[in-house]
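Exam prep: given the inputs below (a chain plus nicotinamide-adenine-dinucleotide), describe the expected output before reading on.
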Amino acid sequence: MKKNFKNYYSAALITGAAGFMGIQHALALLELNLYLVLVDKDFGKLKKTKSRILKTFPNANILIFKCDICNEKTIVSIKKKLDKLKIFVKVLVNNAAIDPKMNSIGKGKSGSVEDYNIKNFRKEIDVNLIGAFICIKVFGKDMAKRNQGSIINIASDAGLVAPDQAIYHPQENIKKLKHFKPASYSISKHGLIGMTRYIATYWGHKKVRCNALAFGAVKKNQSKFLIKNITKRVPLGRLAKETEYRKSILFLASEDSSYMTGQVLVLDGGRTTW
Ligand SMILES: NC(=O)c1ccc[n+]([C@@H]2O[C@H](COP(=O)([O-])OP(=O)(O)OC[C@H]3O[C@@H](n4cnc5c(N)ncnc54)[C@H](O)[C@@H]3O)[C@@H](O)[C@H]2O)c1
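Solution:
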């Protein structure tokens, strides 16, 4: 790999890289011939992610770090380690998030506003918003100094519209609903889009771009009724495949989007158009 900026290697740092979608972003960004810096609080899963990537791309340059993105000191120490290795984070993907689990068919209640546990709410906002801001603060500052960089905030269709709670009931009977999509997720993703606009205008003159990517639901192991209910609300009539966002990550990270900042790229099968 060539050093190309004042003797520094360029890198893409992905937070929450050990999760379901993290590896997809990593595989996309390999196309830009960047170092990959993968961070997550789950180091075991992170090691597995690295091995999975190396199996297909044995020459990929990958560094992994265990970290809690809410801990500014840890993020600063990762930055210092990268500095020593002459690695510059040119692309930051704020992907880590807590999507609070809800029990969509079990007994009891979950996610209701009336009973929401405020301690959980604070933790969820801490990771989804403040953690992303800390990474922007630490790595974006360096991008601004070097007058280049792209920040990609992973939002969601739930950052553009409120969740339609009816999908979480088999017969879509909102009156019988016991399990709700928790407030913190949608609220934090709306906030992340606000942060995207703020940072885009704050550092535009420094040639640091900041955009959000709003995904729709990806097919994984959702219940049959949930898939059916979501599908009805998506004009393209299906959930996304996990590989379907790769090109959009690549687009936002690369010079192909050189005149784009402060925007939300929406890939949701059309769900938020009606
Ligand atoms: N999967 C989907 O259907 C979908 C849809 C729309 C948007 N998104 C968004 O895409 C992103 C990735 O989703 P995913 O499905 O891969 O989620 P995931 O839960 O599989 O992965 C999230 C990762 O973040 C890590 N993480 C959580 N808190 C952390 C912290 N404090 N510090 C460091 N790492 C932390 C977790 O360990 C996990 O590996 C999220 O921002 C999510 O909101 C996902």
